[in-house]
């Protein structure tokens, strides 16, 4: 891996992998870890190219893109609508960074799912958790590292954060190992009408507690939309889950949104930080 991004080389490689040259491309919205390019090919087909460009994920690009390829292959033929992996250059020999080419699914993301959308999200997450890949994926990693356990200066709920850190300092509760998307949320779903037509971004696929996936979906809704759809999602997921809810995982995911020391917050807008602050306070109140 040279580390010098060569988009032209990546497009040529993608065309060769499909058997049809790339005639145009555009950058897709989002992409915290990567440049995500929508490609149009000479034969009329469309693909998506992930170029793992952003640190710290770039350093781990080979592992992340390989995991995404493996997850898509494991879910092929299941009820979970995932892209088809078409080609992988995990070592970045072509583009200078890890690259993964996949089919393009129909649909567009929604910024704020309605009540029916929240219900569809919960049902789909239960479907994901019901999958049993032949080879288990890695054990989940907490994103609430101890280095993050610093009460943020912008909080209005100092005691809630202190309580959260105390909870996370204890051993995690027991759980039934479950297949996880690990970054499940409304931003990684594609919608066609009222139907979810795609689940994308499988680089963090893991094995772990089902409620950690649900917690991440809820906290993302709470921070980017509002607490009401987040709570509605948890209520809907509880009706289809195979294990009881445990607020520990809600706390873990909320704290995981704090930045490592010396880095800016992932969510920087004042309203987003306020909603994260209020969400953490709410989930801490769920603790017995």
Automatic annotation (TrEMBL):
Q: Which InterPro entries match?
A: AGP_Transferase, Aminoglycoside_PTrfase, Kinase-like_dom_sf
Q: What is this protein called?
A: Ser/Thr protein kinase RdoA (MazF antagonist)
* Aminoglycoside phosphotransferase domain mapped to chain residues: 26-240
- Please name the source species: Nocardioides cavernae
Please provide the record's keywords in A-Z order.
Answer: Kinase, Transferase
Family matches, as SUPFAM superfamilies: Protein kinase-like (PK-like) (SSF56112)
One GO MF annotation is: kinase activity
Instruction: Write down the PANTHER family for this protein, in alphabetical order.
Output: AMINOGLYCOSIDE PHOSPHOTRANSFERASE-RELATED-RELATED
Database matches in Pfam families: APH
